[in-house]
Amino acid sequence: MVTLAIRVVSYAALAYLLLPLVVLIGASLTATSFLAFPPQGLTLSWYGRMLGDPTYVAAFATSTMLATAATLLAILLAVPAALAIARFAFPGRDTLSAVLMSPLILPHVVLGAALLQYGTAIGLTRSFAALLVGHVVIIMPFVLRAVLPQLTDEQRSLEEASADLGAGPLATFFLVTLPQIRSGIVSGGIFAFISSWINVELSIFNTTAQLTTIPVKLFNYVQYTIDPTIAAVSSITILVAAVVIVVLDLTVGLDVLSERR
Amino acid sequence: MAASLRTVAILTGLPVLFFAAFFLAPMLVVTIASLTDATGAVTWSNYARILLDRYHWDVLWVTFRIGALTTIVSVLIGYPLAWYLVRIVKWAPWRRACVILIVVPLFTSNIVRSFGWMVLLGRNGLVNDGLLAGGLIDRPVRFLGTELGILIGLVYILLPFVVLSVGNGLAKVDPSLEQASADLGATPAATFWTVTFPLSLPGLMAGSIMVFMLAVSAYVTPALLSGGRITVFSMLIFQQYSSVFDFHYGGALGITMLLLTLVLVAVAGRFGEPKGKGA
């Protein structure tokens, strides 16, 4: 009886999770000039219209470059920090790790506003670099959180063995440590990339009509107009998310709920 | 020790510099701005303006009420779903499909997900059509521009956090404890409330706190689903920075929001601490 009730709630919740995504993908295929679900007639012309609009293409390009650059920078900064935190007892270690993780709990609107105000003072606003530094700050915790648990003590003895056998610190890192934390870097990096790719609250402070990311562009549009082109753009972002997740599942595994963990 | 300190300095130098320059310094600038006026003189007036204005209290009340309701509803839906995935589903491919289904929305922009609900909840949207066809209502219900609409959108956006957090906690509960409880004669309900539920509390608390914080600081979803009729706190901050350009007052609003969330989360964390070392 209870099990039945749980099943019913669960199916309803799964349907609830799926519904808006299905509706957007469906509405993007409608042959009507207004959003219709179920779609009336089927056409890919809204996707064609999106690809024919250079501002959409530019926004997709900006988002992708921004997320790629931010993720690479975040990895380059977070991995050494994780190594220091996991391997050495030094004064201020707990503070360092708390500060590096704190963007996770800071409202993005507040950080976005802070970066705009600070950027105004130092001349770093409404540019790719201004977007980039903010994104690196908010996505670094994802990399750190994924890499830290993988720097286990067993590995440390392997590192010591490597050092005893005469490898330098860099050789030890690339030959011993890196291969073992690679899956953490990959999964943390993917989370970081996606968080950057879909961010609005932070980006919105530093975008302009010429320099805009895809979610900010969508945000500015949907407040005034709703048409099937927007649904087509949205569908593309849903499909990108689905592809990334399937890749993540196949490479490092997404079975986060299994008893084995 | 000296050698390892040098290594630490090499490893942490760049990350520390980066965070000092682009995280701590901006936050410090905002804090200072919030405590000064346009002439640069130190003043509490920005905060006094927030505290003394009835309007802010109303906005805060709406914001925290929406945050609390979002958290409660997300837990009421998310806990059974997590239970279903961890304890009831036996067929691994289906569970995997469900997990993917839960994570896909998480990887999709808030805009896109809120936009989906704008389409669904509109006057002629699928939800109204369905309710009308089912005879549950006789004229379309207004969802957009109401708290109910914002709630539906925010629960949708934040539910995956509860499911993943609770599910992860439940997966770590040792089934042999439940077996032992049953062997000692406890009914399934007694076993659940005295053994399983307390052990799942840390995951539940972590998920709830995350949902609450994200709900009260959310900007995009309320902005899109409120249709301009309801104001939440993050909108006040955004207005000050994007159209009013009063960084002093805007800063005070931002710091107020930050402090309020941190205090509430700390309080919730205290209450949620599991007794003993069960987790």
Automatic annotation (TrEMBL), chain A:
Belongs to the binding-protein-dependent transport system permease family. Keywords: Cell inner membrane, Cell membrane, Membrane, Transmembrane, Transmembrane helix, Transport. It is found in: Cell inner membrane; Cell membrane. Residues 60-248 form the ABC transmembrane type-1 domain. GO terms for biological process: transmembrane transport. InterPro entries: MetI-like, MetI-like_sf. It is a multi-pass membrane protein. CDD domains: TM_PBP2. This is Putative spermidine/putrescine transport system permease protein. Pfam families: BPD_transp_1. The chain crosses the membrane at residues 12-37, 57-86, 98-116, 128-148, 229-257. Its main location: membrane. The keyword Calcium does not apply. It comes from the Bacteria. GO terms for cellular component: plasma membrane.
Automatic annotation (TrEMBL), chain B:
Keywords: Cell membrane, Membrane, Transmembrane, Transmembrane helix, Transport. The keyword Cell membrane applies. Coiled coil: none annotated. The chain crosses the membrane at residues 62-86, 98-120, 148-171, 192-213, 250-271. The keyword DNA damage does not apply. GO terms for cellular component: plasma membrane. One of its GO terms (biological process) is transmembrane transport. It is found in: Cell membrane. Its main location: membrane. It is a multi-pass membrane protein. Residues 60-268 form the ABC transmembrane type-1 domain. Belongs to the binding-protein-dependent transport system permease family. CysTW subfamily. This is Putative spermidine/putrescine transport system permease protein. It comes from Stella humosa.
